[in-house]
Specification:
It is a single chain. The chain contains 10 helices and 2 strands. Helix 2 crosses helix 9. The protein has a two-stranded antiparallel sheet. By secondary structure, it is mostly helical. It has helices spanning about 1-20, 20-55, 70-100, 100-115, 125-155, 160-190, 195-200, 205-220, 220-240, 250-255, and strands spanning about 310, 315.
């Protein structure tokens, strides 16, 4: 269960990172604002023309008497708008990432740079990155739709459909939301969709701890826009953990080890420098006293070159 907390901490750390780098926060807001305007216009057009669309799609009901005609078409109109709103919620992140691919790539690279180490680059042209992102997003949406159909059917089961199914729905949405956001950083590292899903399944609780709270927040469109830059920053930190590049919030923190030091009980390789030289007792209690204290150096390794015949034990004949 510890991974749940670690995932949530990555989400908070990403929000704190963009909060401390105000320029990148504003930079990351632009794609979300553009997507919000596009979705708002689409939903307004749907609400304005839904009545005419339903009337056109149901000509067989033209001769129905009142109130059945109004009730039938009113129900279909409400259902159509609800479906459009649902699609807007589940596709908002994918479309925002697609629209903001160059923005979020730069933001993710900056987070990598601030955390130290190499800054991976895909080396692909922009059109190629957009194509891969769109293709992977479509594949993810197909998976989400399949799970959605299954959960919708289970929703009719008494008690189970009103308790367990909604929780499972948020878990599924959170898992795939974490996949979409970490894809920005992992795609730069050459990790394909299938490998990304394998990594996240291996750390499922980590993905849920990051994605589920974000899914709940993304139900409010304006909140989604405000949280999107920090979500990308946090997902980059999470991706570093999945790729084995993190030493602060990942395995080292959970195991209680100090980053950069050998694990407790692990032997040192012959010839390697002693990282604890001059520190007195060994800082790892499990290993007891420092085994290198007052220890002579290792003998030379490998075959020794022949000595000059005029030399004997360091003295010239």
């Amino acid at each position: 269960m510890g991974d749940l907390g670690v995932g949530f901490r990555y989400l908070l750390k990403g929000q704190r990172w963009v909060g401390a780098h105000g320029r990148w926060f504003g930079f990351g807001l632009l794609p979300g604002l553009v997507t919000l305007v596009l979705y708002g216009a689409a939903l307004f057009g749907l609400a304005y023309g839904a009545d005419d669309l339903i009337a056109w799609a149901t000509p067989f009901a033209d001769d129905w008497g009142s109130p059945w005609l109004s009730l039938f078409r009113g129900f279909l109109t409400a259902l159509l708008f609800a479906l459009g709103l649902f699609l807007a919620v589940i596709t908002f992140t994918a479309v925002t990432l697609l629209v903001g691919q160059p923005f979020y790539e730069s933001l993710s690279e900056q987070v990598d740079r601030a955390e130290g180490g190499d800054v991976p680059e895909s080396g692909l042209p922009l059109w190629r990155e957009l194509w891969i992102s769109a293709r992977d997003s479509l594949r993810v949406l197909v998976r989400v739709a399949c799970y959605g159909i299954l959960l919708f059917a289970l929703g009719f089961v008494p008690v189970l459909g009103q308790t367990v199914v909604p929780v499972l729905g948020f878990c599924v949405s959170g898992f795939f939301l974490a996949e979409e956001l970490t894809a920005v950083a992992l795609q730069r590292r050459g990790v394909e969709l299938r490998e990304r899903l394998t990594l996240l399944r291996g750390r499922r609780l980590l993905a849920l701890g990051f994605g589920v709270p974000l899914t709940l927040a993304f139900l409010v469109p304006f909140v989604a826009v405000l949280l999107m830059p920090g979500a990308v920053a946090g997902a980059t930190l999470l991706a570093r953990d999945l790729a084995g590049e993190s030493g602060t919030d990942g395995n080292a923190e959970r195991d209680g080890e100090q980053p950069g030091l050998p694990a407790a009980g692990a032997p040192y390789a012959p010839g390697s420098p002693n990282p604890y030289a001059g520190q007195g007792p060994h800082p790892h209690p499990a290993q007891g006293p420092n085994p290198y204290a007052a220890q002579p150096p290792y003998p030379p390794q490998g075959p020794q070159p022949p000595q000059h015949p005029e030399w004997n034990g360091g003295r010239k004949r």
